[in-house]
């Protein structure tokens, strides 16, 4: 898939930052199968591009993504939806090795909330409405909402949100640690870019190792996680970036990382 074939997303590059914008404005960026295929393809291209060090995923001021495309799912059966296994595509987002910053404004509901939580850092505008309203249409979150949301906000808040379908606003999401910063609507993408530029200055090798180690927290015990972290730490001493970073520190200058 090439950029010319994208129908549901926009792709851009700002220096070392790759930017993917969800672009189905008439349906508030509803996450159709086609959109998700395009999104994963774009993310994987950025992940392979050595010039890109950080990725931003965003939508519009009105909606990051208001949910999955219900029209595609309404007539599915248990067997048909299992056979299509569309969540296998969703899982690929979490497997991107480079840091992904979600820049969220407006609605981030259902699948939009789940996609947002698949990213590594979340910047929200003051207008953000974040939630899992699937209960209102007779189903539950299926792309990680019950698991990722609970791990961040805790059992009781997650239960309230998932069982009632009520969303939280941006300030509440910040209070619960779901987003790292809330800014005015006109600044949310600029804030994400500023953070991305700061991260992009770091060693690409160390960034990947750090992301991998943090994510390991969610599927290991503390002792296994510590062992994994230590191995990644040791491995970085084989990189040119480690030598450059420590040499620059001792010489009191800014390092120039090569990603090797």
Report the structural category.
alpha/beta
What is the count of β-strands? 10
Query: Structurally, how many domains make up the residues?
Result: 2
Q: And the CATH topology of the largest domain?
A: 2-enoyl-CoA Hydratase, Chain A, domain 1
Approximately what portion of the residues adopt beta-strand conformation? Answer: 15-25%
Major β-sheet profile = 6 strands, mixed
> Roughly what percent helix?
40-55%
- Total helix count? 12
Low-confidence runs: none
Question: Please, what is the average pLDDT?
Answer: 94
Strand order, biggest sheet? 1-2-3-5-7-10
Would you identify the CATH H-level superfamily of the largest domain?
A: 2-enoyl-CoA Hydratase, Chain A, domain 1
Kindly report how far apart the N and C termini lie: 28 Å
Highest CATH level, the class of the largest domain: Alpha Beta
Which geometry do the CA atoms define? globular
Order of helices and strands: EEHEEHHHEEHEEHHEHEHHHH
Oligomeric assembly: single chain
| CATH architectural category of the largest domain | Alpha-Beta Complex
- The radius of gyration over CA amounts to 19 Å
What does this structure look like?
This protein has helices spanning 33-48, 70-73, 78-84, 87-93, 111-117, 145-153, 155-164, 170-175, 188-200, 204-216, 222-235, 240-250; strands at residues 9-14, 17-22, 54-58, 63-65, 100-104, 107-109, 121-125, 129-131, 168-169, 181-183. By secondary structure, the chain is an alpha/beta fold. The chain folds into two domains: 3-200, 2-enoyl-CoA Hydratase, Chain A, domain 1; 204-250, Lyase 2-enoyl-coa Hydratase, Chain  A, domain 2. It has a six-stranded mixed sheet with strand order 1-2-3-5-7-10, sandwiched between helices. The protein has a four-stranded mixed sheet with strand order 4-6-8-9. A hairpin with a 2-residue loop joins strand 1 and strand 2 (17-22). Helix 6 (145-153) packs across helix 7 (155-164). The protein is globular and about 60 Å long.
